[in-house]
Amino acid sequence: MRRRIVSVLLVVFLVVLTVVLLKVLPLAAPAAQGGNYDPAVWGKEFPLEYKSYLKNFEMAPSPTGFGGNEQIQKSVKEPELLANFKGMPFSIDYAYRRGHPYALTDLKESKRVNKQTLGGCMTCKSADLIDIYKDMGDGYAKTPLTELMPRMSHSITCANCHEEKTMKLRVVVPAFLQALERRKIDIKKASRQDMRAYVCGQCHSTYFIEPQGKRVVFPWDKGLSPEEMYSFYQTKPFGFEQDWVHPVSKVKALKARHPDYETWSTGDPRAFRGHLRRLPHAPYEGRG
Questions:
Q1: Are 36 and 167 in contact (CB under 8 A)?
Q2: HEC sequence for 16-57
Q3: 124-144 pLDDT, tens digit each
Q4: Is the peptide bond before 283 cis (omega within 30 degrees of 0)?
Q5: DSSP of 93-129, one letter per residue?
Q6: Beta carbons within 10 angstroms of residue 160's beta carbon
């Protein structure tokens, strides 16, 4: 009995000591400090995480025939998309999404991008958004994309989700932060579990483009379910009425963009139990 008590106390002591040390000696990526967003530089301090990041470069077809990370036009498998999105850019180019390292390359090569394309389109394509937004504020969104391209040299990297000095999770997408603010949600009070969802949700969400300021806006003011978001759209938020008018039906239409976070938040039982569907470095691995 006495030995068991000593063992329990020792375990408690080690746990407390670990927590204290983590607070006193936070993780950091010294080589990345100073605005270096190159994941290879961060990888010098975090080789295992960097190795998992590199898996995003691997190209393979989906075993189901849908999705996957090969750059294939969705209309090859789903020809009805050409009719559904007739009259808007997604009828020109709508390829399956590739991994994070390809985000910036795919933006530059997209047939949807032209000389009239504005800066809001790079919001979730580059870690350089951090510095661009710091310099330009919301004005970056209505700046011609061609003017911002020279400032973008990194795709989605560690910096999109981690602070350089502490490795704490962070959100850098203005639209996500603004959506939380409108909903009176203080991100400073978010739990670690909340932040693990937020860093994914800042990009894996649907949005619309504000007609005047051209900001990226998340339609969450009334909630994240389809019904709540549609109800919000009916208020013509920020002057927005539709993504386009379909040339055949003449109907004002909305384009749902990858509403992954909304679907998980409102339709996945694991979300209500406080579990995450996946993590950026999934699957979670224990080493040592």
A1: no
A2: HHHHHHHHHCCCCCHHHCCCCCCHHHHCCCCHHHHHHHHHHH
A3: 999 999 999 999 999 999 999
A4: yes
A5: --BPP--GGGHHHHHHH-TT--TT-BGGGGTTT-TTH
A6: 24
